[in-house]
Amino acid sequence: CKMVYDKKLIGRYVLLRSITEDDAQFSMEIRQDKEKTKFLHQVEPNLEKQIAWIKRQRTAGGDYFFIVESLDGKKIGTVGIYNIENKIGQLGRILMVGNPFQSFEAAILAVKFAYEILKLDSIRGDVQVENVASANLNKAMGFHCGEKIFDAEFDRYFNWWTSYAAEFPKFEAEVKNLIYRD
Question: Residue 101's pLDDT is what?
């Protein structure tokens, strides 16, 4: 069972494509930026381990992981839809070095993929309480904030945010109005 989407998801600013082993160096390097990853678990800077992880991910059930590229082909981030079970998935692995318009569009394309292609009913995402930027992104995209939960494994508090397929068209239109200024 391979969890690879063979097409590209294309917007006005970015495109999403399934990660390959050739992206391991970028995927590993982007995770070494301490400021960008302060709310994410750390990844060891080991290329062989990153390649092995990508190989496993590409065959894992319920797990899609995308490289985000600017339309000129520059790799600018990652995003994933994973832990898919019973028509519910998780949005995460979002790490962007592009501009805010590219970040919003990458998230919208991932959510649209989850609802329109995978036919999920809802998507969840965990956001550390201190991660205001991610909370604001979730809020703008119509996610509902759940209660604060303590994660003992990572010694942190987070909120589960949930989005529903039935509400997505309204929020997709609102976000597009913000990022597409024709």
Answer: 92
118: helix, strand or coil:
coil
| E strand map for 51-143 | 64-70, 75-85, 88-96, 122-128
Tokens at 37, concatenated: 């990853």
Q: What's the CA gap between 53 and 38, in Å, rounded?
A: 21
CA distance readout (Å), 16 to 12, 79, 84, 109, 130: 12, 8, 19, 8, 28
Q: What is the pTM of this model?
A: 0.90
Q: What is the CA radius of gyration of the chain?
A: 16
Q: What tokens does 173 get?
A: 């239109």
Dihedral (Cα; 24, 5, 90, 74), 10-degree rounding:
40
Print burial letters for 167-177: b (CB count within 10 Å at least 16), e (below 16).
ebeebbeebee
Measure the CA–CA gap between 12 and 108, rounded to whole angstroms. Answer: 12
Mean pLDDT by 10 residues, the chain (182 residues): 83 96 91 65 80 90 94 95 95 88 94 96 93 88 94 89 96 89 72
